[in-house]
Structure formats: C-alpha cells, structure tokens
Amino acid sequence: MIRKGVLYIAFLAAPVLIFVSCSTQQKLQDGKNKMVEIDKDLKQQKNTLNKLDKLRETKLAENQILDTASQKIGQFIQKTRKEIQDRISEDSLMIGEVEVARADWNSLKKALTQSQRSLKSINNKVAFINDLLERNRVVKLDQDVIFQPGEYKVSDDVANSITNFFEPAAKGVDSFINKYPDFNLSLVITAKGYADGTIISETSDLYKELKEQLKLQTSSPSNKELNHQLSRLRAQKVIQLFQEFTTARAGNRQTSNEHILYLSEGKGEAYPDPTIKNYKVNDPRRRVVLLFWSIFPE
User: What is the pTM of this model?
Assistant: First the structure.
C-alpha cells in the first residue's frame, strides 16, 4: 500500500517537474534572445565608431583638428571598438550554446546584466566621441581685422572687442565639460599664425624689428624667415589676448578634470587651408590666425 502511494505521488510530481523544466528553459531562451538584441545594438555602435573615425581623419586632413587631439581621439575610438568586440565575443559563448543547463541560469543572468551595462556605457562613449569631434573646432581670425598692416600688436579697440571672437567657442567647451564630468579631459588652445608671401621692405620698421628678433648670423634674413617670425608673433599675441579673455571671463572655471594648455606657433608662408588650391602671393586668405580648440580624453 505504501509503495502504491509513493508511485502515486511520483506520478503527480512528474508534470510539475516537466513544467518547471520547460519554464526554466523558456527563461534561458528569453535571456539569450535579449543578449542577441544587445549585441545587434553593439555592432551598430561599432559601425558608428568607424564613421566617426573617418570623420576624424577628414578633419585632420583639412586642418580642422590638431594632430595631438586627433591621435588621442583615435586611441579612444580604438579602445571603445575593442571593448565592443570583447563584449560580443563573451556573449557569443553563451548565445551559441544549444541548451543551457538549469544550473547555469544564474551565469546567464549575470552575463545579461553585464551586457546591458556594457551597452549603456558604449552608448555614452559613442555620444561622447561624436560631441568631442564637434567641439574640436577652429576659429579663423582674419589678421587684417585684428592687426594693422605690418603690425603684430593690436589696438585697444580690438583688444576690448575680442570677446566676440572667443565667447561662442568658450561657451561650447564649458557646456561639453559639464555634460561629461566623468571623463578625464585636457583642453589645449593653440594659435597658428600664417602669412602671405609679400616681400617685407628692408627700409621698413617692421623689417628692422623682425631682423633684430631673429638674431641671425647672416646679415640679410630671407623673406620667408621674416614672414615666419611675423606669423609667430601674431599667433603669440592672439594667445595672450585669449588668456586675458579667460581670466576676465566670469564663467571660466578650471576644474579638477580639466587641464588647460596654451600654445602658439608660426607657420610662415604655409597655406592655412589645404583644400584651397588657388592661393596667390599676397592673398588675404593666407593672412589668418587659426585658433584651435582641442579637447580630448587622457
């Protein structure tokens, strides 16, 4: 009689065990399906990173971003791309299983949680890179507007109105830094001065000043050397004006995740825009100072 009772209980428990087993397998399959969808999103973000990397290369070729910033951003893109690939590779091990044992349900849940977190992190990084390329910009300052002919100093009126040139980009950088407080960022402001090929007369005061500053062994500096020095001095002046602007600007706050470096460089008679093929010797388009706002992750 007891034996019959045991058999009867076992008979009743069998459907329950089958139901539990099927229910567990369904949960496992649902978890795997969610992981598949996450990996699809990760692959899409990887494609987006490839497009952003091409945009970075284009900006570099067109002198719209500094070499250092381009290199740092490229490294960050590569690191993020590898993070995506590593996550997909780990997920494929779980997704590829024909059947996951019930005992592995906790492992699947853990892997799914990690994938969800990874996707959220990747989405944030891709948005960050996209904004980063947007914020790395160049402000073109026409020297004919800032400097008088044959001068590398500016009038008081120009110095007082320089905010109109700097303020829009400065606000953009402030907004960017506040938007991504978790990233360790560096900000480099670089002024590159350019000159046309106009000959500087040996009888001019400018010639005498530049010659004295160059302190060359030769008695007669070349025109390229003179123009290079002139472009360097003008770039230095723009950086000086910008530093005075940032000091006076109430919104300029240097935080712990922001390191600001100021640089200037004279490019002489080099062409400021490599996409322009019809520059002339005395072309006003060559007389510019390019102010690069370079912000990048460390």
Answer: 0.79
